[in-house]
Amino acid sequence: MKKNRKTMLFAPGNTSSLFKDIISYEVDTVMFDLEDSISIEEKDSARELTKNMINFFDYNQYNIEVAVRINHFDTIFYEEDLKVMISQSKTNLLRLPKVETKEDVLKVVNDIEKLEKQFNKTTKINLFCALESAKGILNAYEIATASKRVVGIALGGVDYLLNLQATKTDSRHELLFARQMILHAARAANIDAFDCIYGNVQDLKGLAKEAQFVKELGFNGKSAIHPNQLPIINKIFTPSEKEISDSLKILNEYKKYKKHNKGVFSIDGQMIDKPIIENAENIIAKANIKNPLI
Q1: pLDDT recorded at residue 108
Q2: Locate the HpcH/HpaI aldolase/citrate lyase domain: which residues (predicted)?
Q3: Which domains does the chain have, with CATH numbers?
């Protein structure tokens, strides 16, 4: 079954106290960072700590998906990051930073396949690609479709704005093109579209406005950098009780009409056809409720 991701919490891989706290949070995916938040001097120790803690806590038993943001392949830390996380840890996802082309993805996939063969790994590790530059955004679709391992693409808003020489505003217009490109590429590839972090951890009203905005655009979820952001993101990206009840009503009625081979029917005066049925199925899936049609 496809993983339902609404939240992805960034956690520095060098902060030992955070690893235990994760299990108490309502989070879909935790992303331990070995890249930007870790100094060069701490790269090796952070990698070792992250590996050990992932294995010790076994987050999957708490229904938490484990992702690790490794260092880019143009760094000296990439090979060891990849080797350790594939051969020695219970990691589900690798988050690839600064992806700009499909060749970037294929290079990592090739390296992963060699390691999986070398260490006789039977569980396939998937990829989440961060698009953080103009080049990456313009190549969003080729990145999204580069490999079946790619299950999502995400906006790296801070680096993207730096690359564009743009300024962050309350109106959010400076990120709209990038968000639309990521969303369209993800939908065309049938993978997840994830929004960037909201940097001000004290401005929860601003977070709520931005999360609501990207939800209305169609994003699956939003990244978080502090646990206090999780309840807001979860609430906004979880379907409301009315959305759930309306969707269940549509699907249950469709199940009845399907027996009579009728393609179109109405509920309370509203014509119900295939797009509305598919939307109802999407809402039920996001709510983690069993689809009555299955």
Answers
A1: 99
A2: 6-227
A3: 7-237 (3.20.20.60), 241-286 (no CATH)
